[in-house]
Amino acid sequence: MASIEKQKDRQSFRTSIKGYLLVAPAIILLCIFTVYPIFYLIHASMLKGSIISAKKKFVGLDNYKYLFSSPDFGKVVINTVLYSFILVAVVMVLAVLVAVWINSNKNSKINQLTQAAIFTPHITSLVAVSMVFMWLMDPQIGFINSILTSIGLPRFSFLASPKTALISLVLVMVWKTTGYFTLLILAALNTIPKSIYEAAELDDTPKYRVLLRITIPMISPTLFFTTIIATIGSFRVFETVNLMTQGGPVNSTNTLVYYIYEYAFKYAKLGRASAAGVVLLLFVGILTFVYFKCLSKKVHYK
User: Fold this and answer.
1) pLDDT for 105-115, tens place per residue?
2) What's the Cα-to-Cα distance from 134 to each of 119, 127, 243, rounded to whole Å?
3) How far apart are CA 238 and CA 223, in angstroms?
4) H or E segment and range at residue 194
5) Is the pTM of this model over 0.85?
6) How far apart, in whole angstroms, are the C-alpha atoms of residue 220 and residue 96?
7) Candidates 1.10.3720.10, 1.20.140.10, 3.10.150.10, 2.60.120.260; correct CATH number of 62-298?
């Protein structure tokens, strides 16, 4: 009996070793490209010195004190939060509505064309998208303003005004990302049993109640996932800001990632850029925690 138990222990030990060896490459890569950069970022946020200089001075929390006492950084944080909130809200509402419409449409050819049309912006280069929208939204020679003036309406300032520049960037990303989330939600809609809708139809349930009481709860896991992904993506906005506005006009479109880029590569101030990066990391982490704490309770898993 003792020999049999020893043999079983050896087999279980070998199995455990094989399991650890299989996951070891993923863990090593995770530590190299995720865990180590986070600790390096925190360490660099407490230093003062140029990014191209080997001489750096430890200053503790001075970089954080500078950030939170700077009105420019406060404006950057407000811009980022507003951009993220508006973008995620608009994209999620549009994605749900379009997905529900496609799912309820029985014409397969129209569905295929619609899905191709809404997904094409997602696979289009963001650089190309930004350049096209810069031409469309140009306050003088832009295509949209040309149409407005031709029908007797005043020009719209778009990216040229601090009041409309941030919303203009949101519109660009709504066009770019809605199709991706629509297809994810559409895939979730296809998993809902048809019998549930048939029962609701027999009871003459209004369509809005079907949407709110049946469709939304049934696809809530997908909505929960896509909301988190969309939020994290919105906080990482950089390309459109860099190409279309460079943070202007009057700092109205400057966001956290572009602020980090400016201090790291334009002003060569590694410490302040790293401190802003830590703030961004905390923002995303806290927001994700809040999502899991509040929204996960309303997710209905099958």
Assistant:
1) 777 777 788 88
2) 21, 11, 9
3) 25
4) helix 194-202
5) yes
6) 11
7) 1.10.3720.10
